[in-house]
UniProtKB/TrEMBL annotation, chain A:
PANTHER family reported in the protein's UniProt record: FAD ASSEMBLY FACTOR SDHE (PTHR39585)
Highest taxon listed in the record's lineage: Bacteria
Keyword check for Ligase: no
Keywords: Chaperone, Cytoplasm
Protein name: FAD assembly factor SdhE
Upper taxonomic lineage: Bacteria, Pseudomonadati, Pseudomonadota, Betaproteobacteria, Rhodocyclales
Gene3D superfamilies: Flavinator of succinate dehydrogenase
InterPro entries the UniProt entry points to: SDH (IPR005631), SDH_sf (IPR036714), SdhE_FAD_assembly_factor (IPR050531)
UniProt source species: Aromatoleum tolulyticum
GO cellular component terms listed in the entry, alphabetical order: cytoplasm
UniProtKB/TrEMBL annotation, chain B:
Gene Ontology biological process terms from the UniProt entry: anaerobic respiration; electron transport chain; tricarboxylic acid cycle
PANTHER family, sorted: SUCCINATE DEHYDROGENASE 2 FLAVOPROTEIN SUBUNIT, SUCCINATE DEHYDROGENASE [UBIQUINONE] FLAVOPROTEIN SUBUNIT, MITOCHONDRIAL
Record GO cellular component, one term: plasma membrane
Protein species of origin: Aromatoleum tolulyticum
Keyword entries, A-Z: Cell inner membrane, Cell membrane, Electron transport, FAD, Flavoprotein, Membrane, Oxidoreductase, Transport, Tricarboxylic acid cycle
InterPro entries named among the record's database cross-references: FAD-dep_OxRdtase_2_FAD-bd (IPR003953), FAD/NAD-bd_sf (IPR036188), FRD_SDH_FAD_BS (IPR003952), Fum_R/Succ_DH_flav-like_C_sf (IPR037099), Fum_Rdtase/Succ_DH_flav-like_C (IPR015939), SdhA/FrdA/AprA (IPR030664), Succ_DH/fumarate_Rdtase_cat_sf (IPR027477), Succ_DH_flav_su_fwd (IPR011281)
FAD-dependent oxidoreductase 2 FAD-binding domain sequence ranges: 9-404
Protein name (Swiss-Prot/TrEMBL): Succinate dehydrogenase flavoprotein subunit
PROSITE patterns per UniProt: FRD_SDH_FAD_BINDING
Cofactor binding: number and manner: Flavinylated by SdhE, about 5% flavinylation occurs in the absence of SdhE.
Organism ancestry: Bacteria, Pseudomonadati, Pseudomonadota, Betaproteobacteria, Rhodocyclales
Membrane topology label: Peripheral membrane protein
Signal peptide: none
Length: 78, 597
């Protein structure tokens, strides 16, 4: 089953402004190029709590889930 | 187009702290309750709150609710209603202890009580010395609070409609509220939520400003829906600005940075706060620091090529101190300012943070509006709580940690009022008018058919810039007057927004266009209310109303000790008195005085 891109895009709306800003950059730059596989990884990552996600993106807490590492890499790129 | 209809005892729009607390009250009373939310409940903006929630538990220092009440009235610059403030401060311990029982992991003292720490504006013995009144769960208070409330709601069988966006309020010819229309993002279909009671808990609208600490979700939907349906918005000129938002991004840099020795500097490197607040310097209150920063910028001493910000310097602190005492700040600065604060100062500007005004309610959480000579007549079937509501406990200026308390107290109280009003037979399921969904369907059809329109992004950007420039920290008569005409012309453009993507499901462009309609209502309310209020009070500071012996701090109680009510229709203002009488006969009112710290 293919993943609805609009749904994933909406789920990039977060509770912390820090993440909204990171995702705004990512949506503009990377999102449209994601493969279905990457999209599935992203959707899985988006289930994280916001504070945990932010800690992985800013590097204060390393990402330990292999499946998320590529997306964390893209999100962290400034 | 046929519109599906769902029927409930109560429908709540919003699943942040206020919505979840209200929902719990209803579901645990056995009522059939629906909660609509744009995002998953624990992704509501309440998650961002770190500082804590106020309650005079007295666990760390001696405290009582009378002192808390005094601080809140004074903080509000006497614009807060003293009945609601008494109610909130008296209820604080009860709602915080309740939350503890729901499993909230509060920090503890050695003997196992809830640990409390000091916070600006909260004092012992009527302003004499700082008090420890803030209860926190590490630096994740809001997050922990939402999780505790959400779990409890799941247990109580609250029915959640996640990723549903409420569009418009439904009222009948008598003005009674009968529910809302809502769009399910997954299908793009509109439904009617028909209910005996409707509670709004949609949070703030901080995204009307260009520089804001608020997440993108804070688009003031509840305020927009209420305003379009003829309900006035109260005291919308009052917005709290936090002095240190990262320049260009808005992300909040906590007060703790200045507490640890951070220094604000202008373009020549001068520690300018020494001139404005010789004693407290960089640690003066939020409004004083914000205004000093803006004065520096306005007088040409700002930093950067456009001289439009100042610098927050912690380079003199040791890297160890920064890493240990100020976790998170370095990451924020590197990400959003591109500077490592160990090596270079952080560019900052005063940033919109909290909306004191909102949908007018009484202390029971019932929405009130002028009707037949009563300025505070309850609107049958309509309730509101949290940042979207104005009870009014924060008046012209909110104290830190009083907002999370407001969510708990008035979320619960709105829920209790619904139960009471149902039991006393005051509420029933009233017939829906035939055109109940027409306003929403027309809005969607307009977007669908719009050609040669304006981009949502461009109109939104112009709104945010207009608000920032004309209704910012410091307000000037000529800028406000120009601001009114400019925001009205931006509002005209917002009626012609066009989206290129017309897809039905998960259309985020459409969602953003609908959100802009709500933001615009809030922006108009703010600008028009601010232009009209010719005094300075709390967070509303006018250049032409300075401190003087006749008007201390520029405040003019003879003419302006009153609440503003803005009506969308006709862009019209009315005023109503501030309630100076506390709730209980045996509680003395807090008499008017100059607000000094
Ligand atoms: C960075 C930051 C830090 C803060 N720290 C503190 C603190 O330490 N202490 C304190 O007391 N206060 C603090 N505040 C203020 C406080 O966090 C907020 O005022 C409070 O959390 C607002 O809660 P709420 O329940 O009213 O709304 P929110 O938590 O914003 O929830 C709004 C809900 O409404 C839903 N919603 C909105 N529109 C619609 C719609 N059209 N249809 C369906 N659902 C909708 C959303 O999905 C969400 O569930 C802070 C604020 C910020 C920005």
């Amino acid at each position: 089953m293919s993943i609805n891109r609009g749904r994933v895009r909406w789920q990039c709306r977060r509770a912390l402004l820090e993440l909204d800003l990171v995702f705004a950059r990512f949506l503009e730059r990377d999102f449209d190029r994601l493969t279905d596989g990457q999209l599935a990884d992203l959707e899985d990552l988006l289930r994280c709590e916001d504070h945990d996600l932010w800690a992985m993106v800013n590097g204060s807490n390393p990402c330990e889930v292999d499946r998320w590492k590529e997306m964390i890499g893209l999100l962290s790129q400034r | 187009m046929t519109v599906a209809k769902r029927t409930f005892d109560a429908v709540i729009v919003g699943a942040g702290g206020a919505g979840l607390r209200a929902a719990l009250q209803l579901s645990e009373s056995g009522l059939k309750t629906a909660v609509l939310t744009k995002v998953f409940p624990t992704r509501s903006h309440t998650v961002a709150a770190q500082g804590g929630v106020a309650a005079s538990l007295g666990n760390s220092t001696e405290d009582n609710w009378h002192w808390h009440m005094y601080d809140t009235v004074k903080g509000s610059d006497w614009l807060g209603d003293q009945d609601a403030i008494e109610f909130m401060c008296r209820k604080a311990n009860e709602v915080v202890v309740e939350l503890e029982h729901y499993g909230m992991p509060f920090d503890r003292t050695d003997n196992g009580k809830i640990y409390q720490r000091p916070f600006g504006g909260h004092s012992q013995n009527y302003g004499q010395s700082p008090v420890s009144r803030s209860c926190a769960a590490a630096d994740r208070t809001g997050h922990a609070m939402l999780h505790a409330l959400y779990q409890r709601n799941v247990r109580a069988n609250t029915q959640f409609f996640v990723e549903w966006m409420a569009l418009d309020l439904i009222r009948n010819a008598d003005g009674d509220v009968l529910g809302v229309t809502a769009l399910e993002m997954e299908t793009g279909e509109v439904s009617i939520f028909h209910a005996k009671a409707t509670i709004f808990a949609t949070g703030g609208a901080g995204r009307i400003f260009h520089s804001s600490t608020n997440a993108f979700i804070n688009t003031g939907d509840g305020l927009g829906m209420a305003a379009r349906a003829g309900v006035p918005l109260e005291d919308m000129e009052f917005w709290q600005f936090h002095p240190t938002g990262v320049f260009g991004a808005g992300v909040l840099i906590t007060e703790g940075v200045r507490g640890e020795g951070g220094i604000l500097r202008n373009a020549s490197g001068e520690r300018f706060m020494e001139r404005y607040a010789p004693n407290l310097k960089d640690l003066a209150s939020r409004d004083v620091v914000s205004r000093s920063m803006v004065t520096e910028i306005n007088e040409g001493r700002g930093c950067g090529p456009d001289k439009d910000h100042v610098l927050l310097d912690i380079t003199h602190l040791s890297p160890e101190t920064i890493m240990k005492r100020l976790p998170g700040i370095r990451e924020i600065s590197i990400q959003f300012a591109g500077v490592d604060p160990i090596k270079a100062p952080i560019p900052v500007v005063p940033t919109a943070h909290y909306q004191m005004g909102g949908i007018p309610t009484n202390y029971k959480g019932q929405v009130v509006a002028p009707k037949g000579g009563n300025v505070n007549a309850p609107v049958t079937g309509f309730y509101a709580a949290g940042e979207c509501a104005c009870a009014s406990v924060h008046g012209a200026n909110r104290l830190g940690t009083n907002s999370l308390l407001d969510l708990l107290v008035f979320g619960k109280s709105a829920g209790e009022s619904v139960v009471e009003d149902l039991n006393s037979g005051n509420l029933s399921l009233k017939p829906l008018p035939a055109d109940a969904a027409d306003v929403s369907l027309a809005r969607l059809a307009r977007l669908e058919g719009q050609t040669n329109g304006e981009s949502v992004f461009d109109v939104g950007l112009d709104m945010r810039r207009t608000m920032q420039k004309h209704a910012g920290v410091f307000r000037f008569d000529n800028l406000l007057k120009e601001g009114v005409s400019q925001i009205l012309s931006v509002a005209e453009r917002a009626k012609r927004t066009e989206i290129k993507d017309k897809s039905k499901v998960w259309n985020t462009a459409r969602t953003e266009a609908l959100e802009l309609d709500n933001l615009i209502e809030v922006a108009k309310a703010t600008m028009v209310s601010a232009e009209a209020r010719k005094e300075s009070r709390g967070a509303h500071v006018r250049d032409d109303a300075p401190d003087s012996p006749e008007f201390p701090n520029g405040r003019n109680d003879n003419e302006w000790l009153k609440h503003t009510l803005w009506f969308s229709e006709g862009n019209r203002l009315e005023y109503k008195p501030v309630t100076m009488r506390p709730l209980s006969q045996d509680v003395e009112p807090i008499a008017l005085a100059k607000r000094t710290y």
